[in-house]
Design goal:
Layout: H1 2-21, H2 29-32, H3 35-38, H4 42-52, H5 54-57, E1 75-77, H6 85-91, H7 107-127, H8 133-158, H9 183-198, H10 215-228, H11 232-249, E2 270-274, H12 285-289, E3 302-304, H13 306-309, E4 314-316, E5 319-321, H14 328-332, H15 340-345, E6 346-347, E7 352-353, E8 356-357, E9 385-386, E10 406-410, H16 411-424, H17 428-441, H18 453-468, H19 474-480, H20 484-488, E11 494-501, E12 504-511, H21 530-535
Antiparallel strand pairs: 1-3, 2-10, 4-5, 6-9, 7-8, 11-12
Signal peptide: 1-25
GO cellular component, one term: cell outer membrane
Main location: membrane
Length: 546
């Protein structure tokens, strides 16, 4: 198992490095191995397929420095004013444009990956006769999933996209100029593709192949796609198939301990993840997001906002309450008796961490600094640090790097999809039944049933913030709910400035942006890159971006 894993990770690492260093060097396996070798047996074929899993890793937010929650209201990048892509897009009216889209959408790289996946699918029809038919069908389904997954990511960002999905031949010069499909056509293709391949994929793999695409992953991403497409019946169908795998077969479950979701490799809550392994495939999450006091010159690149922290309920006299700084009982000891997800998500002043306590007060080891200050690089400007996904063991993350996994989808999201889809159908009883399963897992009581979409959405928003913070949901949720303008535009986010006074502390909620966020109507879609419109004359730019 270890030998196989190291070989495949080494190949994937090589391909990812080549792709990140020079897009023109997107070397595919067919450049390195002859078709005769690749298609000789299923073991060789699996090495080929494992290299194609780079399609997942390019959207794994743990692998870079860019958390999409940093474009929303719950994460604030801490570097010098206007010094990161997040702060530029959030606050510079002219920064996001057809000439500058890479931060939000790696369009060109994604289509290069899609081409590689298309090559495999086409080659399977030409050279796959030496592979057992059932084994070949599964592997074709894996690759088709990866292709549909990439289109899912593109459609979330751009709306309608150029679908290059011919399974018989690659698009050639005659197909260079190709129109974008409509948003509905694009989503319909993804949903139907995932529905078809789900039944061709296994429910699980043996230990050697753990982490490969499964039936649950296909139905799960189908359900998420249908939610974005506002196809509620399809969303319920896909999510229910995953729920059946959980309840009838024990494939998935909500872990009793929320913190273990992010610390226990291959746990049963995970449906789809990107896995890393030292020394062959690593990332720099700890290097960039650890508390400043952990290492010199690094850490503190982004911090939870007070908007996130105040979303976590507090318990007073045995009752769970919404946290409120204006409540003297809450404000006197703001980090005591918060709900469990808070402690798994946020590092706060006084938190136990690697044999010490976090010091985010002014002048502390991890100390707060005002965002507008020219020295704000690598410091917390909110009074908090990210806890979720950090490695709690003492290691040299600068030299050794990190290898925690990134969760693309887990079972809690399936329950949220079911909840939201049933709410859209008007069945608020089922909607709250699924929402309360997530709350009950961490010991929170049921939410009272609401019977309007507006009231329900307030409950859903808060639950998703607390459940999925740092996991890349919030920004895209705000966009698809059409709430981004009201939540972000002309708004500022907040942190807390903590002052040590004797043995106690005083807390002041402060503006951590020093400038308004900017989210006009056209930001609901990322523009098509200008090079695509220039090179593909049939591809039209969105009207609001023309």
């Amino acid at each position: 198992m270890k030998t196989f894993k190291n070989k495949t990770l080494a190949m994937l690492c090589l391909l990812l490095c080549l792709g990140s260093c020079n897009k023109s060097l997107d070397v595919t396996p067919r450049d390195k191995y002859s078709n005769e070798i690749v298609w000789k047996n299923v073991d060789n074929l699996d090495l080929y397929i494992n290299s194609l899993y780079g399609a997942l890793y390019m959207y794994a937010e743990i692998g870079g420095v860019s958390l999409t929650d940093g474009y929303a209201d719950i994460i604030k990048y801490s570097q010098t004013y206007m010094d990161t892509e997040h702060n530029r897009i959030n606050m510079r009216p002219s920064y996001l444009s057809p000439a500058s889209t890479e931060a939000l959408s790696p369009w060109a790289t994604t289509y290069e990956k899609i081409k590689s996946l298309n090559e495999f699918i086409i080659d399977a029809g030409r050279y796959g006769d030496k592979i057992d038919a059932k084994q070949l069908q599964i592997r074709i389904a894996e690759v088709r999933f990866l292709r549909a997954f990439l289109y899912h990511k593109l459609i979330v960002r751009h709306g309608g996209v150029v679908l290059r999905v011919d399974n018989e031949k690659l698009d050639g010069p005659a197909e260079k100029n190709k129109k974008r499909s409509s948003v509905d056509e694009s989503w319909t293709w993804v949903i139907q593709e995932l529905k078809d391949i789900a039944e061709k994929l296994p429910e699980s793999w043996d230990a050697v192949h753990t982490g490969r695409i499964t039936k649950g992953a296909a139905y799960g991403i189908m359900a998420r796609s249908a939610l974005y497409a506002k196809k509620w019946n399809d969303a319920i169908f896909g999510a229910r198939q995953v729920e059946i795998l959980a309840t009838a077969k024990g494939t998935y479950m909500l872990l009793d301990d929320y913190t273990q979701v992010f610390n226990l490799t291959h746990n049963k809550e995970i449906i789809l993840a990107s896995y890393y392994q030292r020394p062959t495939l690593t990332h720099d999450f700890d290097k960039y997001f650890s508390p400043t006091g952990d290492m010199e010159r690094y850490g503190g690149y982004a911090s939870p906002t007070e908007e996130l922290v105040s979303s976590f309920d507090i318990q007073q006299a045995g009752q769970w309450q919404a946290f409120d700084w204006n409540n003297p009982l809450h404000a006197s000891d703001p980090y005591l008796n918060r709900e469990p997800r808070f402690y798994a998500t946020v590092l706060y002043n006084g938190a136990d961490w690697k044999g010490r306590q976090i010091e985010t007060y002014v002048g502390g080891k991890d100390g707060y600094i005002e965002y507008f200050d020219g020295n704000a690089r690598n410091r917390t400007v909110t009074g908090y640090f990210i806890r979720k996904f950090l490695d709690s063991k003492p290691k040299d993350f600068i030299q050794e790097k990190s290898d925690q996994y990134w969760i693309e989808m887990r079972y809690a999201e399936i329950l949220c999809i079911l909840s939201e889809a049933y709410a859209h159908m008007g069945d608020y009883g089922k909607a709250y039944n699924y929402l309360n399963k997530i709350r009950n897992r961490v010991g929170l009581p049921n939410k009272p049933l609401q019977s309007s979409w507006t009231a329900y959405l307030q409950d859903l928003q808060k639950e998703k913030i607390c459940e999925f913070a740092v996991e890349g949901h919030r920004y895209w949720d705000l966009r698809r709910w059409q709430l981004a303008q009201s939540v972000l535009d002309a708004k500022r986010m907040h942190g807390v400035e903590i002052t040590k006074e004797g043995t106690g502390f005083t807390y002041s909620v402060v503006d951590c942006d020093k400038a308004d966020h900017y989210f006009p109507e056209r930001y609901y879609t990322v523009p098509i890159p200008e090079f695509e419109v220039r090179n593909n004359t049939a591809c039209e730019q969105d009207l609001l971006w023309q």
